[in-house]
Amino acid sequence: MLFKYQAIDASGAKQEGSIDAISRDVAIASLQRRSLTISAIEESDPEKKSFLGGITLFESVTNRDIVLLSRQIATLFEAQVSALRVFRLLASESEKPLLGRVLTEVGDDLQSGSPISKALSKHPKVFSAFYVNMVKAGEESGKLDETFLYLADYLDRSYEVMSKAKNALIYPAFVIATFFVVMILMMTMVIPRISSILIDAGQAIPVYTQVVIAISNFFVNYGIFLLMLLIVGGVFLFRYAGTPQGRASFSSFELAIPYVGDLYKKLYLSRIADNLATMLGSGISVVQAVDVTANVVGNAVYADILQEVATSVKGGGSVSGALEKRKEVPGIMVAMMRVGEETGELGSILKTLAKFYQREVSTSVDTLVGLIEPIMIVTLGLGVGILLASVLVPIYNLSAAI
Asked: What contacts 138, CB < 8 A, 6 or more positions away?
């Protein structure tokens, strides 16, 4: 919401302006942190709200936005610009309204004496726990400029791996979705008209044509119930996926899918190795690095594994010793991490593992796409061929009889 205010600053001068905040109380608190004494504040044009009560549905901060932001922060810190001025400047220059508001609030917190990591932690939807802990480590070591560069490089690598996997599946998903839409339209609009002609003609109808007509009748008569069932089932699955049991079930299923499950395993192993390497290289303790990685890995199975590792390390055990008990972690990864622990080069070993699994993900995606395309072409060809044969053969027999 946008609020207009009138206030008096520390020197006694009157000020007027506007501030964007989620509520009146938040707006007042932000202004007070600027050492302003508020004399009047009211919502600006309260009747001009977006639908759903002013909730903005399409505002978001992408991974690319955070990468660019991190590089800008690192550059400004290298130029010896103060933290408060950095965030004020970036807030005013941001092209994303949501990010601009977040950076403004971070600047307000910094002005009131809050550390950068604590100010960032108030916005978990924009700055992950991994990001916040890296910044905290940078504050403690006095190397914030290097930390933000590390973060930008890490997010770049993560974005590249994830986008490659997603983009590779867009085309097959689009083709398959289009095929199903066309088939449903054929079954509900074209086949019923043709089937009435064939039945009225009194000719013998082939078995495969009878099957197609039966499927068409089902969609015509019960299609609305099937659609309602799918919607209800989708809502149930969505809500179930939000529960701990649901997340665990979907995560296990994700890893159990033939071939695709191997791709996901390599993706998560790459993320784990890269996260740990980046955090250990920044001076964060092993226990804290494992805890944070468990929160951001994105899969409940591997999150449980990492939580077990954290518990083991707290009890005096080793990371490799805890990982070797789980079949989801390859033996070669465990062996290399054990060598890294024994030689004191765990961070370097993890960097090597991260690069290895990133290459494996890239190779697996290329192979998967190479397999999907011929399978998709053959399947679509068979489906279209059966549908055409079931329609054209009876029509040909009917014309021949005439």
From this structure: 144, 146, 147, 148, 282
Q: How wide is the angle at C-alpha 39 spanned by C-alphas 37 and 41, nearest 5°?
A: 105
- 370 three-class SS: helix
Q: Write out the two tokens for 66.
A: 């955070």
pTM of the model: 0.68
Reference 41, options 59, 53, 23, 57; nearest CA is 23
Nearest to 158 by CA among 264, 72, 293, 275: 275
Can you give the C-alpha Rg of the chain in angstroms?
A: 29
CA distance 186 to 196: 14
Task: Enter the tokens of residue 393.
Answer: 């053969």
Residue-wise pLDDT tens digits, 184-236: 888 888 888 888 877 777 777 788 888 888 888 888 888 889 889 999 999 99
Nearest to 99 by CA among 116, 87, 109: 87
Please determine, looking at this structure, whether the domain spanning 168-402 carries the CATH number 3.40.50.720. Answer: no
- What CATH architecture does domain 63-156 belong to? Up-down Bundle (1.20)
Distance of alpha carbon 49 from alpha carbon 56, whole angstroms: 10
Q: What is the three-class DSSP state of 17?
A: strand
Do the Cβ atoms of 266 and 353 come closer than 8 Å? Answer: no
CA distance 28 to 37: 9
Tokens of 128: 């992950």
Distance CA 69, CA 90 (A): 8
Between these two residues, 81 and 54, which has the higher pLDDT value?
Answer: 81
Tell me how far apart the alpha carbons of residues 354 and 273 are, in angstroms, rounded to a whole number: 5
DSSP state string for 20-60? E-SSHHHHHHHHHHTT-EEEEEEESSTT---TTTT--SS--
Between CA 149 and CA 145 the distance in angstroms is 6
Mean residue pLDDT of the chain comes to 82
Amino acid symbol at 321 = G
Weakest mean pLDDT among 40-49, 106-115, 268-277, 386-395: 40-49
